[in-house]
Design a protein that fits this description.
Length: 250
């Protein structure tokens, strides 16, 4: 927020240790009314807020919140791992066994430095669009509005001494990040898998209203258009910072 000329709002926020940041910290409700156009894709036909739930048809339990829906998502890695590592992801996450990895540049509650981007900043995606729909439903990583700020809840901290999380099970809401598991703009005619079809999932699809693909930001700051027909091995390599693989054309 300070880098978006929103230092006044930032100074009002309370950052407690617990994951219920809204409970007992009324100052944080100022975020409900924040509207930052920089977080919206100009091609998204929907508004900046959503007064219905993620189905865009049913009423939410608290429509008065109207928190902003962000059209971009941080990339926490890709699954399966491009080089077959089994200790960099967990499969015990709410929403149909979705898988959260710590191999990307944006990991909840952990700072990743440029020096950690072993594959090179021009070969690693840090952000991607998530402004489209799956089966006509808005399923972005923060589409539930009231749960908008959650990032892996109480179990989100990765153990500094290992690549595995501190524990498994429990609540693993990954608002704001996604581990890439499906092609861009993936769409199922008869219902997406739960791990791709739930806003609570760690594998919400990167998508957009653009024809043919999505925009993505590489760690060097450049923007590239990723085709929905991109080779999945190439996409997974792009989303992982340290697999040591040579990325092909994309």
């Amino acid at each position: 927020l300070p880098y978006l000329d929103q230092a006044n709002i930032y100074s009002q926020l309370t950052r407690p240790n617990g994951y219920y940041a809204h409970s007992g910290f009324p100052g944080n409700t100022v975020l409900y009314s924040v509207r930052l156009p920089v977080y919206k894709c100009p091609s998204n036909p929907f508004g900046m807020t959503n007064t219905t739930d993620y189905s865009l048809s049913d009423s939410t339990s608290n429509p008065s919140l109207q928190s902003m829906i962000v059209d971009y998502v941080g990339i926490s890695g890709a699954t399966p791992d491009p080089v077959g590592r089994t200790n960099v992801c967990t499969g015990d996450i709410l929403a149909s066994s979705s898988s959260n990895c710590n191999t990307g540049m944006m990991i909840p509650y952990k700072s990743i430095r440029f020096r950690d981007c072993i594959d090179g900043t021009s070969n690693t995606v840090i952000l991607a669009e998530q402004s489209g729909q799956v089966n006509g439903r808005q399923k972005g990583a923060n589409a539930l509005g009231a749960w908008h700020g959650w990032a892996n809840a109480s179990l989100s901290t990765w153990n500094a001494g290992t690549t595995l999380p501190l524990s498994s099970g429990g609540f693993w809401y990954t608002a704001g990040t996604t581990t890439v598991r499906n092609p861009p703009n993936a769409f199922w005619s008869s219902g997406a898998p739960g791990y791709a079809n739930s806003a609570y999932s760690a594998n919400t699809v990167i998508n957009s209203h653009h024809v043919g693909g999505v925009h993505a930001v590489l760690t060097d700051g450049s923007v590239r258009f990723l085709s929905e027909n991109i080779d999945m091995n190439t996409l997974r390599q792009l989303c992982v910072r340290d697999d040591g693989q040579v990325v092909g054309e994309f």
